[in-house]
Amino acid sequence: MHKAAILTATMAGLLLVAGCSQPQANAPAPPRATDRAPNPSQTSLIAVPIAADIAPLKRALERSVPRTLWTINRRERACVKPQRVKLFGEELKVTPPIACTIVGQVTRGPLRLRGEGRDIVIDMPLTATVKARDADRVFKGETATASAMAHARVRIDLTPDWRTSGTARITYGWTKAPGIDFLGRRVTFTEEADRALAPVVRDIERQVSTEISGLNIRAQAGDIWRQAFTVLSLNRKNPPVWLRLTPQRLLYGGYRIEGQRITLNLGLEAIGETFVSGQPAPTPPTPLPNLVREQPVSQFDVRVPVVADYAQLEPVILRALVKRSKRPFDLPAIGAVDVTFDKVIAYGTPGNRVAVGIDLAARARARSGEPTRGRVWLTAKPLTEAGSAVVRFGDIQVTGDTNAVTGDLLLAIAQRDSFAPMIAEALTQNLTKDLTELEGKIRRATGERQEGAFYIRTRIDRIATGQITAYGNGLYMPVRMVGAANVVYRPQR
């Protein structure tokens, strides 16, 4: 049995000898409480990032962006101007102008996708090849090459209904402008290339936006939302403890690009209810709500009830009293009294109190005859200080129900206060060790685990205890555990 239950039962035995009220003959049993310890609930915010592969965007652009972006086939009347010399103070034309045909093209290389903060950057290498041809074959097959690098910067956004939209802005710059060096003259074609590339750039920007809208974030968000309506095991036995999650909102705090993946920063806000013993049914899922633009900060907050069942306390109380009965009770004007204990009844009574009934028989050694038999009742209120695991009892009331006038002997035993300080000191214990064991169980249960499509990592930073309370179904001490939780969504495909 859990140490807390043993402590509570033994404390009840202490109250039997620590009563402070006046005896009442033939007092009835205290009424039974019918209230039940609550199932504690608290709102937690769990980080649930969504990761989407952007490689399909690259493949779609590879298909839609043509390899050859621009071509040129243009006749020039004077690719090379006439050559002149100065003779006798006059310039004489020694060679005629040379006409030519300029042919060439601009092609792109393989696309490369990378991330820079919130931008998806698409790098597109460009290569230009240009030749000049002339009828007189003055050009000896000269070929000009040029290179450029185009960059498409893409920003993604989510609409309130989880659909994706995006904008693309493409820039490029020539690292080597297209042209030909001939007879000391540089013939360039940058203006023509820029003019031809302008509509191509606009087409690529539209294509990028179209492909981004195909990223199905809503489907993943819907899966996460539905599967988050679940019940998790916090402790499998002694006693079983369950946590039921009921999602309330999904928070969206932006995204980041890592390699070929886009990760959306999502947070699941859910109510966590804790149950002891019986496993609850999960809450039926509700439709996926609109996203809430709010930066999620993970906080795993769970209230674990420690409940001691009164039925389990009864044999423990009896064993403690039987052990005490090996020594006689010394009462004034009576002397040594031998006491035997036969039965213990424990339950919750109204007012958040504990009722303990003890069947006992007592006979003074100095007197002959049959022992006095009866039942003595006590009630007390369990007490703990905030943040403390030490359990004590206060506001003690003792009553009796005996089979003879000499039943006052039983009440005298119950009210014998000389033993109270000694027994209280011996039995009052600190439950910190027990709570540490409980925390360890929950850490192991929730630290790292797979639950369906979720891989859960939980960290507990602090633990605190609340006020112990007696209910109809047992003694209840709330324990609060606060930390952080991160869930990785790994659907089974």
Low-confidence stretches: 1-26, 84-89, 418-429
Biggest sheet details = 6 strands, mixed
Q: Radius of gyration in whole Å, from Cα?
A: 43 Å
Query: Helical content, roughly?
Result: 10-25%
The structure class reads alpha+beta
Distance between the termini: 45 Å
- So what's the overall shape? rod-shaped
Strand fraction equals: over 45%
Q: Got a strand count?
A: 26
Number of helices: 8
Could you tell me the mean pLDDT? 74
Short description:
The chain is an alpha+beta fold and 493 residues long. The protein contains 8 helices and 26 strands.
Question: What does the model show?
Answer:
The protein is of the alpha+beta class. It is built from 8 helices and 26 strands. The chain has helices spanning 3-16, 55-64, 190-212, 217-227, 310-324, 408-414, 420-427, 432-446, and strands at residues 41-47, 50-53, 68-80, 83-87, 90-95, 98-108, 112-116, 119-133, 143-158, 164-176, 179-182, 185-188, 231-235, 241-258, 261-276, 292-293, 300-308, 329-331, 335-349, 353-364, 372-383, 392-402, 448-451, 454-465, 469-471, 474-489. Strand 13 and strand 14 (241-258) form a beta hairpin. Helix 1 (3-16) crosses helix 5 (310-324). The radius of gyration is 43 Å and the shape is rod-shaped.
